[in-house]
Amino acid sequence: MRAHFIDVILPIPLQKTFTYTVTEEEAGFLKKGMRVAVSFGKSKIYTAMVFNIHQVAPTLYEAKDIHQILDDKPIVNELQLKHWQWISNYYMCSLGDVFRASLPSAFLLESETIVYKNEGFTDESVLSDHEFLVFEALQHQSQLTIHQVADILGTKKVLPIINELIKKSAITIKEKIYEVYKPKLVKYVRFHADYSDDNAIESIVNSLTRAKKQRELVLAFFQLLSTKKPIKAKELLEKSNVSSAVLKTLVDKNIFETYHIKTDRIQYKGDTNELMQLNDFQDAALNQIKKSFKERDVTLLHGITSSGKTEIYVKLIHEVIESGKQVLFLLPEIALTTQIITRLQNYFGNQVSVFHSKYSMNERVEVWNNVLESKPKAQIILGARSSIFLPFSSLGLIVVDEEHETSYKQFEPSPRYNARDAAIVLSKLHNAKILLGSATPSLESYFNAQQNKYGFVELNRRFGNVQLPKIELIDIKEKHRKKLMTNHFSDRMITLITEALEEKEQVILFQNRRGFSPVVECKTCGVSPQCPNCDVSLTYHKYKTELRCHFCNYQRAMPNSCGACGSNTLDTKGFGTEQIELELKELFPNHTIGRMDLDTTRGKHGYQKIIGAFEAQEIDILVGTQMLSKGLDFGNVSLVGILNADSMLNFPDFRAFERAYQLMVQVSGRAGRSKKQGNVAIQTFNPYHQILQQVSTTNYTEMYKEQLQDRWQFHYPPYYRLIKITLKHRDYTKVDNGINWLAKALQNSFGKHVLGPSAPAVSRIRNLYIKNLVIKIPPKQSLAKTKEQLTKVKNTFEAVKDFRPIRFIIDVDAY
């Protein structure tokens, strides 16, 4: 009889799957997509995913047995596994990386080896010193983990000692695997079974005449009974205003008993409303989208800011759900989900589930299980990029809102995928439709639409026929010369802000840097404090009077004097959101100023608090970083100010101009959305810059044509594909030698299409030196062949002993 084997994916960055043996019954029970616990290496136990079941023994190694099966039914379906394979092939990463990124970490069990004493062992003379230490510790404690043994011995090499102890039968070991997800149990209270008739209940009340608190609790219980709902212990204690000890006493007296019910952590309470009526332009666009879906699977909706794209999405979602299919709604930024959740829940109520990294692990597991079982509450999934990994069984539509956003691209750790592109492949696997929406589409998507690869629909009227905002460019070089600047505000900007505030309207100010100032410099000797781990100067945060590195989070107190020459003339250069906030408090002392950046939005509800306060008009002026630019909708904002447009333009990146245009148009789009035309003021040293001129006329097509010409001329996407290779190591010479060797090897294969080697703007982060190479792939060249060749070069590189410790990172479409 032939043996049975399974191939499994392990959550580690190794390219291939591994084979383990299973019994015939196990082979009959197992299915693709179930989890099993397997041992790998000497002592590690991993959660692995069954990828294949067969009867072919591995040739290079002896297959081990599996430890245990962890699921009754698959938690990952076949379509997901196909999608994983595509991500792994296209983005040149291992299946293990995709596996690790896809599953909520609660599904990846951790292992702890536990050591027990063997009671039958008596001959201590055969033990060495180290072994005796372990054995003695077990006399005092019933069990020890490997970590504890390592602490006792003060060494990391514990396994050989433990193996010796097992051979001498002094100890036994047992792998304890623990599941990290715990369902949320809510405690409820009911009368004990003895008290079912009324007379018994009367006797309870009489028996408690002296115990005042207990009596109050029983009376509160009666009041809650009238609601005919199960009674939560927490509610009962709140209503009767007594401590939980009183309830425990009554349970001990067998008057009450408690029981638990498993509940979901996230629930929507509230009524659902009718869908909104679309205006004629939205209606026409909706019909065009449906028509385009008949011919093509992907459609790009180019709708100017505040044209009511969300309402169109809602109509489409409604139709897809009616047909019994699931919908995935992708958003680039968690800040944006807080607003859209409310809007979608108004229409769809409990059918909406949310999935992103600010949710706790257990909440994410619940969403995963609801999607897996196609529950009614998981018909619409709203999430950031990681939600493309959920186990959909019948996707009908994917909406990618703000499809141009860089947040859709994952840079660290692997898999370095782009959620928009991966979503397009996912929709193909499900035979679903996908709608990309944006006011400033990325050049690639717009190019695909022009080439008739995607359907294309335009919506160029704002909702309610409000006009696009008036955009004015303020020349701050001129203002500085005429001494018309107050701190970082020109006189014109202050006038506009004052006018808006007098009209009881709100203002948004944009500055894409957090902290107080990015550089602190000594006026005497010109030295500025640097981060010890990275190649950057430290940013000054005034509210904590500390210097902080935004790359590795290193922080230290702000010094009083210069570390190099001892003089106390420290000056700050440049400005961030924190400095703007403080200046505004001086300029407008009677108004409330809010700030929204990475420092103020920590925690699960950080975004909601600030956005909620701004919507409720408790904040008059909101200062923020690029979080503000993403599709947020505030009715009362009449002015948007961009404090320094030049910092976005002068960036060493082929997409700098496209990005700057997108960012400024998106920020401008937050102004004047509901009633009257808004204003946008952009401060710049160079008002005649072509991009700023195009922003001031909101002329997307002109920007597109101009940028496309540059891309063709200099061989960049959408015409050429890019693969970026990064090497990282603590030793500069190693990285330097490695990158030079690599550049030669790749030039032999790809000739002039290899750019570099070069060091990035920040060439050392967390003590690792960084060097880059870029391979450009011409339109006619096969992408698959290029990757094959690159893999060969990588394998040769890693075979060289000196290069082995260097981190080798491949990023496909690295932009």
In CATH terms, the superfamily of the largest domain is P-loop containing nucleotide triphosphate hydrolases
The total tally of domains equals 7
Q: State the share of residues found in helices, binned by percent.
A: 25-40%
Across the major sheet, the strand order is 15-16-14-17-18-13-19
Number of strands: 37
What fraction strand?
15-25%
Q: What would CATH call the class of the largest domain?
A: Alpha Beta
Radius of gyration: 31 Å
Q: Report the CATH topology name of the largest domain.
A: Rossmann fold
Number of helices: 26
Low-confidence segments: none
Going by helix content, strand content and strand pairing, the class is alpha/beta
Q: Average pLDDT across residues?
A: 86
Q: For the terminal residues, how far apart are their CA atoms?
A: 54 Å
Please name the CATH architecture of the largest domain: 3-Layer(aba) Sandwich
Q: The biggest beta sheet, please?
A: 7 strands, parallel
Outline, from the CA principal axes?
A: globular
Describe the fold and architecture.
The chain is α/β, with parallel strands linked by helices. It has 7 domains: 4-109, PriA, 3(prime) DNA-binding domain (GIY-YIG endonuclease), CATH 3.40.1440.60; 111-178; 193-254, no CATH class; 280-461, 3-Layer(aba) Sandwich (Rossmann fold), CATH 3.40.50; 470-514 and 577-710, Rossmann fold, CATH 3.40.50; 517-574, no CATH class; 721-812, Alpha-Beta Plaits. The protein contains 26 helices and 37 strands. The strands form 9 sheets. The chain has a 7-stranded parallel beta sheet with strand order 15-16-14-17-18-13-19, with helices on both faces. A 6-stranded mixed beta sheet has the order 5-2-1-4-3-6. Strands 20-32-31-23-30-29 form a 6-stranded parallel beta sheet, with helices on both faces. β25 (539-541) and β26 (546-548) form a beta hairpin. α8 (212-225) packs across α9 (233-240). The longest helix is centred in the last third of the chain and has 19 residues, at 732-750. The chain is globular and about 90 Å long. The two termini are 54 Å apart. The model has no long low-confidence stretch (mean pLDDT 86).
